[in-house]
Amino acid sequence: MELNSVVESLENQSILVTGATGFLAKLFVEKLLRVQPNLKQLYLLIRAPNSASASQRFDNEVSGEVFRVLRAKNGVRYNTFLSEKVTPIAGDMCLENLGINNSNLISKIWKEVDVVANFAATTKFDERYDDAIRTNTMGAKHILEFSKKCEMLKLILHISTAYVCGEKSGLLLENPLRMGETPKGINSPELDIEVEMKLVSGRLNELKANQVSQKEETIAMKEFGLERARLFGWPNTYVFTKAMGEMIMGESKGPDLKVVILRPPIVTSTLKEPFPGWIEGVRTIDSIVLAYGKGKGRCIPANPQAVVDVIPGDMVVNAAIVAMVCHANQPSNGDDTFIYHTSSSAQAPLSTKLIHYGYNYFSKNPMISTPAKGKSFGKPIKVSYPIILPSVTSFLLFFYVTCVLPIKVMLLLNSVLFGDYFHDICSIAERKIKLLLRMIELYKPYALFKGIFDNSNTEWLRMEVRLDEAEANTFYFDPKCINWEDYFVNVHIPGLVKYVFK
């Protein structure tokens, strides 16, 4: 299969993008507009009640800092260019016809769109099960049903996650998930998506019948999602519902529709474009990095032999565009579901040296503490080299001795000698400990992950794009080009501090 010019192939194309206010989707939209100004149209589905609200969300949440290079490139024509090329659409992928109420606009999209790019997802590990399954699973179904009505459609580009594999170890292949397939295999109960939907409705009705508060309902639905995910072998609600979304894409697409599924691992800030270090939100490893920079990470559970699989966001987007163009004009063979791991663990593995990179940065560039009462400035936060514990068991033992036990002693002294003198201090400490233990439970599958993501399909894409040096430089996504120490110390962590911890 020969890959034609990526930039030229994008000319005069119309693309529908869902999840347009998300991190990767913004990078995707910006890159397309910057490298191919002769795109016909980008339709951006934005959750909003009407077109005015959708346009406002686009202005406020999409075309901001990440568009600054595009803004400089177009100069005084920037606003005109955007208005000509981008159409924000009010809708909701959780609804039939993607919640688009404008019948004329729907007809226009069905007649024009060449590619549907689905970036929409809720990515919280412990999201409410009803919200997660509605967006990540049934949202995929609605995308599929809408796409089948597009007369000119060449393919669906669906962004998933490499961790749909669960907690498997060894070499993990770029294979599609079959309906009902679970990480536990024959040791798992039968997975039926329709049954899961009925269970969600039943649990919600039960909670409403018991007249629980909104907070209690949220907690119950979060726990229910984690319970169902772990029953089948997935570590959290996010990857469980994304896996079911993949199953629907593969099972229900029909013989004439091509689906390209990208599975990135942990996505981090941009390596190069539109500028280095841009990021939004806290990714899997970032909460740990920021906690350490604030002096709250004395010890870290991490298997020294484990490989941390991360990839910069701009590389994911470059791979997505190349895969999209590569498959768009190829004839269908009746079973066209293409899987790409946009991962680094197979060819450019990042080890637990990441901990050293964090120490290297924060020891030279300390974060500043919150000013004490009556003070105008905080103090530099000193970090010490963290203690690395190879298992969750050893971490919990250390944590119990250094944190939990002192609190229990204080509570005992409080009840015997001091009345309620330490009560407030202990209550605050107990809440923080409970929160930390929950974070450990959610993140330990990634800190101790033993799998390596095969990226043979993705490497084939790289080989195709390398045939043209100019395009290889434009659509770079080879992790072997990354110097991890330079990236984390000089790009990612500074970007994290700048754009997330403001």
Describe the structure.
Its EC number is 1.2.1.84. Pfam families: NAD_binding_4 (PF07993), Sterile (PF03015). With 502 residues, the chain is α/β, with parallel strands linked by helices. Helices cover 49% and strands 11% of the residues. It is built from 18 helices and 13 strands. The chain has a seven-stranded parallel sheet with strand order 3-2-1-4-5-7-11, sandwiched between helices. Strands 6-13 form a two-stranded parallel ribbon. Strands 8-10 form a two-stranded parallel ribbon. Helix 9 packs across helix 10 and helix 12 crosses helix 16. The longest helix is centred in the C-terminal third of the chain and has 27 residues, at 392-418. The protein is globular and about 80 Å long. The mean pLDDT is 90.
Explain the layout of strands and helices.
Blueprint: H1 6-9, E1 14-18, H2 23-35, E2 41-47, H3 51-62, H4 68-74, H5 78-85, E3 86-91, H6 103-112, E4 115-118, H7 129-147, E5 155-159, E6 170-172, H8 193-209, H9 214-232, H10 237-252, E7 259-263, E8 266-268, H11 286-293, E9 299-301, E10 310-312, H12 313-328, E11 337-341, H13 354-364, E12 387-389, H14 392-418, H15 423-447, E13 451-453, H16 456-465, H17 469-474, H18 484-499
Parallel strand pairs: 1-2, 1-4, 2-3, 4-5, 5-7, 6-13, 7-11, 8-10, 9-12
Helix pairs in contact: 2-12, 7-10, 8-9, 9-10, 12-16, 13-18, 14-15
